[in-house]
Amino acid sequence: MYPHSHHKQDQPILDVSHLTVRYNGHVALEDITFHLHNGERVAVLGPNGAGKSTLFKAVAGVMPPTSGEVNIYGSRPRRHVCIGYIPQRSQVDWNFPVSVADVVMMGRSAKLGPLNWPHKKDWDFVQHALETVEISNLASRQISQLSGGQQQRMFIARALAQEAELMLMDEPLTGLDTPSQEGILNLLDRLKQENVTVMVATHDLEQAASHFDRILLLNHHLVAFDKPQAVLHTENLLKAYGGRLRPVDGENILTVDDCCDEGEHDHAH
Amino acid sequence: MTTLTDFFLQPLSYEFMQRGIIAAILVGIVCAVVGAYVVLRGMAFFGDALAHTILPGIALGYLFSGGARDVLFWWALGTSVLAALGIGAISKNSEIREDTAIGIIFAGMFALGIALISTVRSYAVDLSHFLFGDVLSVSTQSLWLILIFGGIVLLTVFAFYKEFTTLSFDPILAATLRLPVGLLNNLLLTLIAATVAVSLQTVGVALMVAMLVTPAATAYLLTHRLSHMMMLAAVFASLSGVIGLYLSFYLSIASGAAIVLTATFFFIIAFLWKRTT
Amino acid sequence: MHRFIAVTTSLMFLLTACGSKPASDSPKAVPVVFASTTFLADITRNVAGDRILVESLLPIGSDPHSYQPTPQDITKISESQLLIINGAGYEHFLEPLLENADGEREIIEASAGINLRRDAQGDHDVDPHIWLDPNNVILYVENIREALTHFDPDGAAIYQSNAETYIAELKNLDAWITEQVNQIPPERRLLVTNHEALGYFSDRYGFTVIGAVVPGTSSDASTSARQMADLIDVIKSSGAPAIFLDEVENPNLAEQIADETNVRVVTDLHLESLTDGSPAGTYIDMMKHNVTRIVNALK
C-alpha cells in the first residue's frame, strides 16, 4: 500500500529543478535549482518568510510545486518514504497524550501499514534510534516533559526510525541554549556516519559556516549555493537579508537581526 | 441494608430500564473513544453541528415512513454521514474559514429540519424527544443497532488507531509517510457521524456534543497516554450513563440531561483535583 | 402516507378558506361560524343545518394538545363572528390567536355548565375530554343551539328542531354503547391510554382508568422513568388487557410497556379529531368506531 520507490544510485539524492511554489497569490519560491549529494550536510539560510519551510515541504512531497520539479533519487518525492521532516518545535501540540517512544514509533507507520501492530523489529528500530540520539532513558515520558534539546532529539530519532535518508530540519537550533545546540550539531556528525543527508534551516551564520558542507542562501529565489566561504560575502548577504543586517564591532562581521519580521514564532522553549 | 440493595435493584427490575442502561453504557463507550480524537483535534463545534444537521433527515424520515424509531435510525445515519463529508469538503475547498462554513451549514440544515417538521403539526412531542433524548423507549431492535454499529465504529478505531493518532498529532508526518490522508480524514468524519447517529436516542441532538467531549476531556486531564485516555473516558461515560439513569428514575428528571450533568460533574471534580496537585 | 394526507388536507383546507372569501359577494351570503375542532364542527353542523357554514379551525388528523397555529389561523379567526370552542382549558393554542386577531366575535364554550373532572394527579388540571361521553354532548347541543339562535334569531325554529333530532340520535348512541360495553366482562373493563382522555367515558360506562403512559390530560407532557415503572407495575397487578392510543400519538413508549407487560396495543382510536370519511367522519361514527375497538380488545 505504501510506496517503496527504488533508489537509483546514479541519481542525486535530491535534485530540484526550476522549482516555483505559489499559494494564496503569494510567491513563496521562485525558480529554485540545485542538487545534493549523498551524505551532504547543507545549511539553509534566509530571513523569516524567505520560503525555507516551503522549500522543505516541497522537497518532502507535502506541498505540490506550482511549476518545476523535485526528484529524489530520480523520482517524485511522493514515491518515497525516506524523507524525514522535522518540524519547528513551536508548531507541535506538546500536550498531546503520547510518550517519546510513541512519537518515535510513529515514524514506522509507513513500514507497518494499516491493521498491523508493531513487531519486535520495529521496536528494535525505535530502540536503536533513541540510543543514537541519547534519550533512551526518556522513552516513556510524555512529550511535554522534555527540554527543547530533548524534543529536537526525539524528532531526529523519529526520522531515524523512519529509516529516512534525507532529513529536513526546520530551525532545530532556535531557542536552544548553546550546550544544547552543540549537542544537536554533534549529532549531525553521527548522522553523517549513518549516511543520512541533512538540510538544516538556521539563522546562525557562524554555526552554518563551521558545521556544514554547503550553505543554501534563500530569499524566495536562490541567492547562492556553495561552500560557506564562497557564500558568506557581504554582497550575497545583502541580497538575501536586505536591510536586516547590522555591522558589529567595526570588523567585517555581520549579524542578522531578525526580531521584527512577519511570521515570528514563539520561542518559549 | 435491604433498602440500599432495593435502591439499586428496583430500577433494574424493569426491562425498559435494563435496555436504557445498556444503551447508555454502549453509547458512552463509543462516544468516549471517538470523542478522544474530537477533543484532541478541536472538533467539538463540528460534532455539535453534525448532531443538528441530522434534523432535516429525521423530518424526511417522518414524512416518508412515520415515526418508527428503527427506520429513523437509518435516516439519521445517512444524513449524518452525508453532512460530515459535506462539511469536510466545504471547509477544505473554500475561502471561508472552517468554523464559519460549519456554522452556516449547521444553522441552515437545522432550520430546514424545523420547517419540515412544522408542516406536520402533530409531532411536537417527538421533536422534543429528538432534541433531548428518549432513553426510555430504546427497543430491543434499537439496542441491536447500537451494539452492531457501535461495535463497527470501535473496531475501525482499533484497526486504524496508529494512523488516526499519527494524523492527529502530526499531519505533515502523515503526509511524508504517504499515509492516505484524505481517506483517513473522511473515515474519521464518517466514524464521528456514525457515533452521533447511534447516540442520538439516548441524549438527543442538543446534548450530543457533551457525550463526545466531556468524558474525553475529563480523561485528558488525568492521563498522559492516549490509550489510557480512551479507556478512562469510556469508564467515565459509562458511569455517567448509569448514574444519570438512576437519577432520572428517582428524581423524575429528563434522562439525557441527567447523564450529561453527571458527566460534567466528573469533569469539574477532575479539573479541581488537577489544580490542587 | 397518512401524514401526507394530513398535509394535503390542510393545504386543501387553506385553499377552501381562501376560496370561500368570494362567498361573501354572492347574492345569498351564508355566514361563517368557526368551531375549534373537527368534531365540534360536526356537532355544530348538525344543529346549524344549511343556514350557516360551519368550519373547523384545526385540520383533520391534528392533535389539539400540541397544535402549533399558523398565521392563516389568525386570518380565519378575524373573519369569524362566532367561535364555538370546547372550553375547560382545551384550546391552549387559541390564546395567542385571539390576542392578535382583529374584529370582535362571540366565543361560546360548548361545555358550559357541565360538571368537570380533574386529572388523576388531583388538583392540577381540569380534564377537557368531555365530549367522549355522548350525554355531555347533549348539553353541548343545547349550548350551541342557544348560541346560534342568538347569532341568527330568524333560524330559531330550525335550530330547535335540528337539535331535537340530533339529541335523539345521541341518546340512541348512548344506548348502543351501553349494550356494547356489556359484552365486556366486568373485571376486564380496565382502560390504559396514552394520556388521560377517557375519564368522562369511564365514569359514564363503568370502566376503571388504570393509568396513562403520559401523565396528565394532555399528550404534550413527558414521562419520567419512574412513571413508566409505576404504570408497568399497575398494569401487571390489575391485569389490564390493552393500551389504547389515538392514531396521532407516537406509540413508542406504549410499545415498550406492552413488550414488558404482554398487553395489546390498539393504535387507531380517534379521540380528538375526526377522519376524512370512514371510519370516523362524524362525531357519532367516531364514537362508534372507538367503542368497537375498545370492546373488541377487552371482551
Describe this structure in words.
The complex is a heterotrimer of chains A (269), B (277) and C (299). Chain A has 269 residues and is α/β, with parallel strands linked by helices. Chain A has 9 helices and 11 strands. In chain A, the strands form 3 sheets. In chain A, strands 5-6-7-3-8-9 form a 6-stranded mixed sheet, with helices on both faces. Chain A is globular, with a radius of gyration of 18 Å. Chain A has one domain (14-256): P-loop containing nucleotide triphosphate hydrolases (Rossmann fold, 3-Layer(aba) Sandwich), CATH 3.40.50. In chain A, strand 8 (214-219) and strand 9 (221-226) form a beta hairpin. With 277 residues, chain B is mainly alpha-helical. In chain B, 86% of the residues lie in helices and 0% in strands. Chain B contains 13 helices and no strands. Chain B is globular and about 65 Å long. The two termini of chain B are 36 Å apart. The relative contact order of chain B is 0.17. Chain C is α/β, with parallel strands linked by helices. Chain C folds into 2 domains: 2-175, Rossmann fold (3-Layer(aba) Sandwich); 184-298, Nitrogenase molybdenum iron protein domain (Rossmann fold, 3-Layer(aba) Sandwich), CATH 3.40.50.1980. Chain C is 45% helix and 12% strand. Chain C has helices at 2-19, 38-48, 71-79, 94-100, 134-151, 156-181, 199-205, 225-238, 252-261, 283-298; strands spanning 32-35, 53-56, 82-85, 106-109, 190-193, 208-212, 242-246, 264-269. In chain C, the strands form 2 sheets. In chain C, strands 2-1-3-4 form a 4-stranded parallel sheet, with helices on both faces. In chain C, strands 6-5-7-8 form a 4-stranded parallel sheet, sandwiched between helices. In chain C, strand 3, helix 4 (94-100) and strand 4 (106-109) form a beta-alpha-beta unit. In chain C, helix 2 packs across helix 5 and helix 6 runs parallel beside helix 10. Chain C starts with a helix and ends with a helix. Chains in contact: A-B, B-C. At the A-B interface, strand 5, helix 2 and helix 3 of A face helix 9, helix 10 and helix 12 of B.
